[in-house]
Amino acid sequence: MAGWIGWSCFLAILFLASSTIASSEGPFIVAHKKVKLTRLKSGSERVSVSVDIYNQGYATAYDVTLNDGGWTLDIFDIVSGNTSTSWERLESGTLLSHSFELEAKTKTMFYGAPAVITFRVPTKAALQEAYSTPILPLDILSDRPPEKKFEWAKKLLVKYGPLISVVSMVVLFVYLVATPSKSSGAKGSKKKR
């Protein structure tokens, strides 16, 4: 009796391990959602959305569908593209990208939902689901202080300041080494007499 229980435990562990290994050999979808707000001169605001879908698994995902339907039509108008799309397949180790643009109609704080990605795995009958990364809350059409005139110069100085100082020190050093001093020139002329 004890031998039978031992074998049944061994077979149960073997079954669980094999199912875990089999599932890790399938597609593994990772999706990253990015949003960029751009204030237009007309006073409206453009929302650029892009979703990158990676297959980090070992198998191909089929019938891949992206649905990013969390954009309320009361707040946004679709300017270009669609909030949903589909692809026939996503090979292992590859990337798919989708982007669209919206225009904001209302001043609000918007909390967006992650995009939903569905796909098929050949070994499973049911559709598999993955979610994109969430986005930070968007303060749409908010009152922002005007950008200062020399803000671009400050950004350049912060970005390239250390490089400029090192280059100027090297140039100064080369100048000092390469140019003769007046005192050594005067000594040389005294020795010739």
Task: Give your account of this protein's structure.
This protein has helices at residues 2-24, 151-178, 182-192, and strands spanning 29-39, 45-55, 61-67, 76-80, 84-90, 95-104, 108-110, 116-120, 128-131, 138-140. It is flat and about 90 Å long. The termini are far apart. It is built from 3 helices and 10 strands. The protein has 193 residues and is an alpha+beta fold. Strand 1 and strand 2 (45-55) form a beta hairpin. The longest helix has 28 residues, at 151-178. The strands form 3 sheets. Strands 1-2-6-4 form a 4-stranded antiparallel sheet, with no helix packed on it. The chain has a 4-stranded antiparallel sheet with strand order 5-3-8-9, with no helix packed on it.
Question: Can you lay out the helices and strands and say which pair or pack?
Answer:
Blueprint: H1 2-24, E1 29-39, E2 45-55, E3 61-67, E4 76-80, E5 84-90, E6 95-104, E7 108-110, E8 116-120, E9 128-131, E10 138-140, H2 151-178, H3 182-192
